[in-house]
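Homework-ish question, so no full write-ups if that breaks the rules, but can someone show me the predicted structure for this set?
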Amino acid sequence: MYFFPLSILAIYAVLFFILPDRILFALTRSGKVLLSMAIPLVLIFTLMLLINLFVKPAKVAKYMGKDSGIKGTLLSAAAGIISTGPIYAWYPLLKDLKEKGAGNYSISVFLYNRAVKPFLLPVMVDYFGWLYVITLIILTFLASIFIGYSLSISITVDGT
Amino acid sequence: MKIAISADGPNLGANVTHRLSAAKYLLIIDVESGEFEAVPASNNTNQRGAGVQTIVTAVSRGANAVLTGYCGPGIVNQLKDSGIEILTGITGTAKDALEQYRALAANTGLRGDQHRAASNMNSKDLIIQAIKSSVRQFVNLLPVLLGVVLLIGLFDAFVSRGLLLSIFSGNAAFDSLWGACIGSVFAGNPINSYIIGGELLEYGISLFAVTAFIVSWVTVGLVQLPAEIAAFGKKFALLRNGMCFVIAIPVAILTVLIVNFIERYLS
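A: Not a homework solution, just the prediction itself:
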């Protein structure tokens, strides 16, 4: 978690002795970017709090894979959207669900819809606008269904 | 009736773990018959997400109660929401724990004082727990985010606009392809892709490239591919990532075309 930012700081430190003017420019630019994110970051924290208070990912995840109809699709997508933390932390859980009968379709829909993160929407809207964000979310959901079906058909036809 | 015991081994002689998240196995035991099944708990014991994984395992295996050494109030609440009772303060072997539970069930009608104490969380506890979780999530997000912001500063200072525009020519298909390629290599919290994407837009890079970059950042994971193969198999992981890479391009093109169309229509 800290390796990446520390590496960048090390680059700053080295370059400061070679090209101090450019590094000062880079710092000013970074400061401006950070400042522009202040309000979206406050909104992010608020949304995180609300989601942690009212949404229980495990409760939604347990219904995943019950069927691949509209309800199953919506539940898998919802579980993907509200899932937090690194994806690899979810692999054992999804593997277990798969062993319990959740299909490739449900797993795939879950993984694809992780692209939509409600608590990050303030930053996304700040950069790209509401229209763009809503369009992308709808297309992401539709793409997840397409990939889910294509994947389950490909694997079933192949028999593996 | 079934119970789940957090244990450090796959049999009834294994010790009950001091924390739910430290379980190597979850022993799902039929209280009446004594038959049991040992379910590997998680590859990431003691890490974030291990508790949630244990809950889902317990729920999916039909357990009515979870017995463990200690369990955080957030997990207690989620178990309670899922209709599962939890007994903490359990020590000794899984077999001892099973006997304790049988004795408790016989004396108190399947409900123990420990369970009542643990599950009676009031709304104040819930809010404190939610604040703690949110602060932890937020703090975890910050280091890489600050790194990305500093990287953007460096990018601004050292990379010329001309160089970028020579790669991203403005052609919808090629820009989307390039965006998807770069997004597939990188991974991590989506917020970083939004920030980088937003800054690339300021450089004059097309929205096609930026959208494909954002979409593939989360949906395609070359870095996580080995872990995905281990979890779901090679065929599933390769096919899924390949399809997600390909679909990122039409998704990007369609998104931009739809947005442009609606904006033109509205104006």
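Now go work out the reasoning yourself. Hint: Chain B touches chain A through 80 residues (CB under 8 Å).
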